[in-house]
From TrEMBL, chains A, B:
<comment type="similarity">
    <text>Belongs to the GST superfamily.</text>
</comment>
<protein>
    <submittedName>
        <fullName>Glutathione S-transferase</fullName>
    </submittedName>
</protein>
<dbReference type="InterPro" id="IPR036249">
    <property type="entry name" value="Thioredoxin-like_sf"/>
</dbReference>
<feature type="domain" description="GST N-terminal">
    <location>
        <begin position="1"/>
        <end position="82"/>
    </location>
</feature>
<dbReference type="InterPro" id="IPR036282">
    <property type="entry name" value="Glutathione-S-Trfase_C_sf"/>
</dbReference>
<dbReference type="InterPro" id="IPR004046">
    <property type="entry name" value="GST_C"/>
</dbReference>
<dbReference type="InterPro" id="IPR010987">
    <property type="entry name" value="Glutathione-S-Trfase_C-like"/>
</dbReference>
<dbReference type="Pfam" id="PF00043">
    <property type="entry name" value="GST_C"/>
</dbReference>
<keyword id="KW-0808">Transferase</keyword>
<dbReference type="Pfam" id="PF02798">
    <property type="entry name" value="GST_N"/>
</dbReference>
<dbReference type="InterPro" id="IPR004045">
    <property type="entry name" value="Glutathione_S-Trfase_N"/>
</dbReference>
<dbReference type="InterPro" id="IPR040079">
    <property type="entry name" value="Glutathione_S-Trfase"/>
</dbReference>
<dbReference type="GO" id="GO:0016740">
    <property type="term" value="F:transferase activity"/>
</dbReference>
<feature type="domain" description="GST C-terminal">
    <location>
        <begin position="85"/>
        <end position="209"/>
    </location>
</feature>
Length: 209, 209
């Protein structure tokens, strides 16, 4: 039985996992979550996952949430994308945590604010706050990537899958690749890998359009 | 040579690591970071740590940032606080990530906004946004802890050290233990453990008073 990923196209956190599965060459099956119609608040979904989060990975009896934990699982099970050296493992975890707190952790809510929240609920002060924090984190990534091909070690890892989670989306969230040449080159390097696909190619969109 | 933790009292992220070191019975030495006078922006600190973050753990040649990665390191090196079963490890990681994104990830900036930012820079809209997200996460923790003593397995782990990082501070950040009886009982259970200390007992305060 192949792994199932409960996901929807707009979720960058789900994309990280879908991308890692593709890059690892692991067969998987998307289970569409109708997020904008409240699917994550339904009792069946809450029974699967008390945190009410997307994505959820199901692999037989194993049910996991939090994209960083799912990435760790995919890497462990497939033996891929975890870095070559033992010392890489801790660096991979560090970048996944950095992403969770400061890159995707800011880009996700910011993109939601600017694109998916009903207009009357949007707040420019909140968007400005999130954007300021996102760009502080992007500057650190830009510095780190200035003289490296990948975030950790000398090959692609789940740390790259994590940190790029929101960065291929076209909706405006104040991120412009042109402003970050090292990040731009790294995103091009990633999207040139065999198996890479854009989030909307891997997962069905949920936003009512 | 004992481990050194670059820290200051107001940092809940540093507290998580200091607390884990105490609970593990591992000798350690605090190195005070004069945060509010710009110490994390100084070249010497940036050389130690490109991310410019507090805490930083130094253990001989090993230099680590991101409290979740430091907690993982402390647990690995001491063989303590990692959970008893192999299956616990993934749950521990999941709660550390949940905390990084949604509990400490919101409580930290919110407490900063409400207490340490110059008053003219505070924004009630930002505080309301962060508070809303924090309380959503606290409700999930409250549900999870309703019928358990610890977040993972049947003993204290670094997941508990992570999630309590900001919850013992007295400064107002819209969290009141009385509203969360299961969290309240869990915090009391934690603070009754041998070795537990309040953040301001473990680390020197940096906020100019």
């Amino acid at each position: 039985m192949v792994m199932k990923l409960h996901c929807f196209g707009e979720s960058g956190n789900a994309y990280k996992c879908a991308l890692a599965l593709e890059l690892a060459g692991e067969p998987w099956e998307p289970v569409h979550v109708d997020f904008f119609r409240g699917a994550t608040r339904a009792p069946a979904f809450r029974a699967l996952n008390v945190m009410g989060e997307v994505p959820v990975l199901e692999d037989g009896e194993t049910v996991l949430t939090q994209s960083g934990a799912i990435l760790d699982y995919i890497s462990t099970v497939t033996g891929k994308l975890g870095g070559k050296l033992a010392a890489d493992r801790r660096e991979v975890l560090r970048w996944i945590l950095f992403d969770t707190q400061k890159v995707s952790g800011m880009a996700g809510p910011l993109r939601f604010q600017m694109n998916f929240l009903p207009e009357e609920k949007r707040d420019p002060a909140v968007a400005a706050f999130l954007s300021g924090r996102l760009h502080s984190a992007l500057k650190i990534m830009e510095t780190h990537l200035a003289d490296r091909e990948w975030l950790v070690g000398d090959g692609v890892t789940i740390a790259d899958c994590a940190c790029c989670g929101y960065l291929y989306y076209d909706e405006d969230f104040t991120f412009d690749r042109v402003q970050y040449p090292a990040i731009d080159a790294w995103l091009s390097r990633l999207s040139a890998l065999p198996g890479w696909k854009h989030p909307y190619e891997l997962m069905t969109r949920a936003f009512p359009g």
